[in-house]
């Protein structure tokens, strides 16, 4: 194995997190199989905008309060701040030097890609943008559900 970076599983539209839907596991066997990699399951708004879902994902990974941004909250007519994950982050040390793998299902590519919005707001710098290497993920929406 080339790296030991943790994996964050991110559900798609109409998906749910591990403590929702009466404990039914969205990821099935993927979360139960033995792995040397640390794994986390994100819980995003099932029908929220890509912007909102990106902010929620960022907050869960870093362990901060969800901040949708003042301008966005005003335009979207919702609260600026959401759930507070302080002290409960999946991988608070997440940075360019300590990357993660984002594994998404279905329509999750925009929220994963939009993490740069949250990164810039919280760190003041552009997020890493290279993709496809050992250090930066490639975001691909996919679905294995039959039509």
Describe the overall structure.
The strands form two sheets. The protein has a three-stranded parallel beta sheet, with no helix packed on it. The protein is of the alpha/beta class and 147 residues long. Helices cover 23% and strands 12% of the residues. It contains four helices and five strands, in the order ββαβαββαα. The chain has one domain.
| Helical content (DSSP H or I, runs of 4+) | 10-25%
- Quickly count the domains: 1
Biggest pleated-sheet summary: 3 strands, parallel
Strand content: 5-15%
The number of helical segments is: 4
- Overall pLDDT metric: 75
Query: Strands of the biggest beta sheet: in what spatial order?
Result: 2-1-5
Spatial separation of the terminal alpha carbons: 35 Å
Category by helix and strand content: alpha/beta
The count of DSSP E runs of length 2 or more, i.e. the number of strands, is 5
What order do the helices and strands follow? EEHEHEEHH
Shape: globular
Radius of gyration: 15 Å
Parts with pLDDT < 50 across at least 5 consecutive residues: 124-147
């Amino acid at each position: 194995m080339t790296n030991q970076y943790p994996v964050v599983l991110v559900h798609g539209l109409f998906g749910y997190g591990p403590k929702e839907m009466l404990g039914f596991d969205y990821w099935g066997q993927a979360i139960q199989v033995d792995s040397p990699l640390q794994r986390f399951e994100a819980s995003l708004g099932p029908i929220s905008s890509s912007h909102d879902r990106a902010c929620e994902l960022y907050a869960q990974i870093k362990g901060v309060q969800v901040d949708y941004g003042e301008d966005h909250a005003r335009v979207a007519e919702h609260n600026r701040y959401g759930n507070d994950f302080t002290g409960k982050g999946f991988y608070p040390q997440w940075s360019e030097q300590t990357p993660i793998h984002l594994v998404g299902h279905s329509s999750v590519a925009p929220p994963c890609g939009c993490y740069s919005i949250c990164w810039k707001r919280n760190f003041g710098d552009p997020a890493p943008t290279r993709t496809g290497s050992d250090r930066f993920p490639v975001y691909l929406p996919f679905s294995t559900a039959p039509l």
